[in-house]
Amino acid sequence: TKIDKEACREAYNLVRDDATEVNWVTFKYNGSTIVPGDQGVDYETFKRKCTDDVRLFGFVRFTTGDAMSKRVKFALITWIGEDVSGLQRAKTGTDKTLVKEVVQNFAKEFVISDHKELDEDYIKNELKKAGGANYDAQTE
Hints:
This protein is α/β, with parallel strands linked by helices. The protein has 4 helices and 6 strands; from the N terminus they run βαββαββαβα. 33% of the residues lie in helices and 31% in strands.
């Protein structure tokens, strides 16, 4: 497996750039090469790309925090659909190291094959746990 580093880096930087609306991109397989897939602003649209017959990598921007402080957090999501073959499943873990050569800044990494785990609140909650300071208790 190879990765188109330049194209993937451009997509990655779109999500990281505060000046763009883009808050998620996918990296998908084109034969044996990982290339940028779709991108968008709505997390629900990203979730619809995660179908049972594909494996893909998603780099997603979330805004977490509370009334006292808002923070942008990034998640690297490895999606492996339920209908993906065992061999492809196994290769996905190795291929992720290629993606991580491009996607280097993220608060938390997820490997998901169950649609329930793609729930936005679940992921935000996990990012919040990974994020350190939590001022929510002061408002209760």
